[in-house]
Amino acid sequence: MSRICIVGASGKLGQYMIAHALAKGYQIHAVCRAKSVGKLARFKGQISIYPGDTDDRAVIQRAVQGCDAVLTVLVPWGVSQYATRTAQAVLDFAAPQARLIFSCGWHISKDGKDHYTWQLKTFVAIFGFVARLFRIADLADQVRACDTIFSSERRWTVVRGSDLEEGPSQGLPIWREHVGDPALASNLTRRTDFALFMVAAIDNPALIHQAPAIVGAGEVV
Ligand SMILES: NC(=O)c1ccc[n+]([C@@H]2O[C@H](COP(=O)([O-])OP(=O)(O)OC[C@H]3O[C@@H](n4cnc5c(N)ncnc54)[C@H](OP(=O)(O)O)[C@@H]3O)[C@@H](O)[C@H]2O)c1
């Protein structure tokens, strides 16, 4: 049985990833903020929890030890480089051959070839400005984190999520290299399926050094 680490495990995406990874028989090391450990109560006895901020290098170093893959929820909260520091710790301490899967949103671009709607550009500009003004979040931090990952030689994948919704699984999302591809027009993914894609990426070598933009597979009729 293979062992993986989930960084940012107590959030919505993280908990879905735990459920999918358990179903696939993985042993799980879960990193989450100490105050959020209670959110993982339903997984008691099934996972090993490493309490701590995800940018705490000592916590990450312990948690990723012996793991074949590390799934990281990258979030730009605060104005202290939380995402960049988290990504750097994972890149520095994960085993050399480990698969490293990171989450982010469509607004991240690997090669500048994505085509964004004016609505998305406006949302990112306004949210980014207001969040930074009130020191809630720093979108540029998530951009820097991803740039650090993109320039790494590690076996990474950066999964770029569309708008998200709750609801039962519709199966593995589809993906394209660039936002703006007509196949991604729905701009909607079930959160559980975002998690499904993150876990499935562990065993998909075609996704190494890719930044897939995903959307849900849609209703099965
Ligand atoms: N929300 C969307 O519409 C959307 C769209 C596209 C892509 N994404 C991507 O999907 C991923 C998950 O996003 P989500 O919105 O669904 O959130 P989420 O899964 O609920 O995860 C939020 C994470 O952020 C942590 N967090 C919250 N406040 C924090 C703080 N002040 N300092 C440090 N960590 C904090 C949470 O930890 P605690 O449990 O400890 O609070 C949790 O691990 C992210 O990578 C995001 O970029 C989201």
TrEMBL record:
Stored InterPro entries = NAD(P)-bd_dom, NAD(P)-bd_dom_sf, Polyketide_Oxido-like
Annotated Pfam families: NAD_binding_10
Q: Which SUPFAM superfamilies match?
A: NAD(P)-binding Rossmann-fold domains
Start and end residues of each NAD(P)-binding domain: 8-205
Q: Cite the PANTHER family for this sequence.
A: FLAVIN REDUCTASE (NADPH)
Name of the protein described by the UniProt record: NAD(P)H-binding protein
